[in-house]
Amino acid sequence: MKKVFVTSVVCMILLMASVAMADDKAKAVAAVNAVAAYYDAHGKDATIAELSKPAAGNAFKEFAPLYVFAYDTNYKMVAHFKTKLIGRNYENLPDVKGKKFRKEIVDTAVKNGEGWVDYWYKNPATGKLAEKTTYAKKIGDIIIACGVYK
Question: Model pTM?
Fold first, then answer.
């Protein structure tokens, strides 16, 4: 009986985690789509400027703590609330397991228009390495993206 109870609790926890992940992914897509709509209404320069403001104080603050960032098609970061990252080329910078995920983010969006990319990244909330997935979408000549931890 105890084994059945423990198994049930574990299944419930996994189900809840799966639902939370689906919610986070839906929020990431919604954030990217909100930025795409902003781009359509205000243009590229205004969008890049807005994305380069702190996440809690830009036009997309409703999605915080999630934030959207942008690359150009040459793998250069063109917008991020951490402005020191802007202007750097990330094509060949891998995650801890060697995956060039930033290149894959850009390439996926360029090739397919949009898509998800999985990789490993340090979670600032826990300070630990964790799986992360990022949704990316090509709008105009930039790639906008938003990631969530699994």
Answer: 0.84
